[in-house]
Amino acid sequence: MESDLKKTLNKNLVGKGLRNTSVDLSVLKYFRQYAKTYAEIHNGIVVLSDLTANWSFTFMGAIAERLHLSSPDRKMEINSIWEDFLLSRVHPEDLAVKHRLELQFLDMVKTIGPKERFQYQANSVLRVEGKDGKNMLMSHQIVYLDTPGKEFPQLALCCYTLLPDKEDQHGNNNYIFNQVSGEVYLLHKQDVKDAMSQREKEVLKCVRGGMISKDIAEKLGLSINTINRHRQNILQKLRVRNLHEAISVYDKMYKQEDDSQ
């Protein structure tokens, strides 16, 4: 089951897998070259996503060797806005925080005027599985790119670069940053835990126990439609693709809290 947000983006994908972008091709060409150059200079991985077409261009620097990415994973274009070849290697807890920050970031820049919204970026630190299953620290930055037209956002740029192994993981490494004024907007741990309502937690715990929507509805005294809506909200808030991933994130972020009650 896909999140509502992902469903909305996927509707922009033309049948038979063909891309139909509404972004000016000259603008797209310019940012593709920028992304390629950035990846080469910083030895990182850069993903340029066309949100109007559910399509991404990926560019690999030297870090791809350390991640042991296979040749198919290094292909230049992917039929999705999600770089699953890399996100599948990210620690589940870090992935949930990253997606929560991105959701906060998107909500925030939509309220900002067109002239200022492109001054902001969101930063996070991720544990990414590398060689022999060992985690390496990587910095992730996302910005929305300035493109002509009223539609927003059209293009997003995600940059992944290696961090020192001894990078401080105890500080707040997940924040939104204004590149001009220097203002910082933090994402606190409490924000992540509060992403799900108490009812959504109850529904997910039932799913975790192997219950189907009909059984959950009877147990909680709700309609099946309401349960299905809660399930969709869970996927959207945790920014995962299915309930299996949601349960994995739940176990990382909420189980200790539940066990103490």
Spans with pLDDT under 50 lasting ≥5 residues?
1-18, 256-261
Strand content: 15-25%
Could you give a short account of the major beta sheet? Answer: 8 strands, antiparallel
Helix percent reads 40-55%
Distance between the termini: 30 Å
Number of helices, where a helix is a run of at least 4 consecutive DSSP H or I residues:
11
Across the major sheet, the strand order is 3-2-1-6-5-4-7-8
- Cα-atom radius of gyration: 19 Å
Question: pLDDT average, as an integer?
Answer: 81
Total beta-strand segments:
8
- SS-based class: alpha+beta
The secondary-structure element order is HHEEHEHHEEEEEHHHHHH
Overview of this structure, please?
The chain has helices at about 5-10, 25-40, 65, 85, 90-110, 190-195, 200-210, 215-220, 225-240, 245-255, 255-260; strands at about 45-50, 55-60, 75-80, 120-130, 135-145, 155-160, 175-180, 185. It is an alpha+beta fold. Strands 3-2-1-6-5-4-7-8 form an eight-stranded antiparallel sheet, sandwiched between helices. Helix 8 packs across helix 9. The longest helix has 18 residues, at about 25-40. The chain is globular, with a radius of gyration of 19 Å. It starts with a helix and ends with a helix. Mean pLDDT is about 80; it is low at about 1-20 and about 255-260.
